[in-house]
Amino acid sequence: MNRKNTGTRMKDKALLFINGNPPKTLPNPDHYHLVACTDGAFHYLKNLDFPLKKLDFISGDFDSHSGSDENIYQDKFIYTPDQNKTDFHKALEIILEKKFKTVDVFGGSGGEQDHFLGNLTVAFGFKDQLNIKFYDEFSEYYFIPEKFIAENVKGKMISLYPFPSVKNITTTGLNWPLTNGNLSITSNIGTRNFAVEDEISIEYEEGDLLIFIGKNYL
After folding, report:
1. How many CB atoms are closer than 10 A to CB 137?
2. Pairing with 158, which of 20, 54, 146, 192 sits 20 to 30 Å away (CA)?
3. Distance CA 133, CA 120 (A)
4. What tens digit of pLDDT does each residue of 139-193 get?
C-alpha cells in the first residue's frame, strides 16, 4: 500500500538505515517519529548530507566507527557488542523496546549478498512483532499476511518469493495469476510477474511469503 506523506511525524512508524547500498533518494525524516541507523550506515548518511541531528539513536558494535568529527553525536550512540546478532537485528530489538510496530528500512540490499540474505532472515524472525518494509532503488519488499491487497500497482513488477514454501496460493490482478497453487524455493517461485490491475490480491493457506513490488514494468 502507498503511505500518505502527511508532513507530520507518524508516531507508530520508525525509519532505520542499515549498512547496505546507500539509498539514491533519501526519505524525509520528518515523516517518522523515530529515526535511527546502524554505525556503518552512519558514514554514508554523513556523506549524503542527511540531517544527522534528526537521528534518535545510532546502534552497533562501532567496528565501523571512526573520525573525531563524529564525537558530537556520541550521546546518540547505543553500544550493542553482541557478536551473535547482526547490527540490524540489534537495532530492531531497540525499536521494539521503544514500542514501535512499523519500520521502514533503507540499505538492506546491495553489497555482499550474504548480508542481503541475512537481513531477510532477520526480518523473518521479527515478522510477528514488527511490520518491516525494505526499500531500495529497484523495489519495496516485505513479508505479507495470508490475505493481502496492494493498491496503485498497475504496470509494476510483482515478484512472490516463498520463504521457503507457500501452499494453496491464489492471486488476482497479475498477468500470470495463480489459483490454488504451491510455491517452493526449491521448485517453483513466483518472480518477474507484473500487475495488470490497479489492485492485486493474494491469499494463501500455509507458509511465509515475501512480495517485491518494483518500479513500473510496462
Report:
1. 12
2. 20
3. 10
4. 999 999 999 999 999 999 999 999 999 999 999 999 999 999 999 999 999 999 9
The arithmetic mean of pLDDT across residues 28-53, rounded, is: 94
Contact 149, 167 (CB under 8 A): no
d(CA 207, CA 96): 24
Q: Which residue type does 135 have?
A: Y
| Alpha-carbon distances, residue 169 vs 29, 109, 164, 189, 216 (angstroms) | 37, 27, 14, 12, 24
Q: Would you state the cell numbers that stand for residue 158, as one nine-digit string?
A: 510483482
Q: Give CA–CA dist 1/106, Å, rounded.
A: 17
Residue 138, number of CB atoms within 10 A of its CB: 12
Per residue in 186-216, pLDDT (tens digit) is 999 999 999 999 999 999 999 999 999 998 7
With contact defined as beta carbons under 8 Å apart, do 77 and 127 qualify?
no
Determine the angle formed by the axes of helices 87-97 and 113-126, rounding to 10 degrees. 30
Burial environment of residue 92 by CB neighbours within 10 A (0 to 12, 13 to 18, 19 or more) = buried
**Residue 47, number of CB atoms within 10 A of its CB:** 9
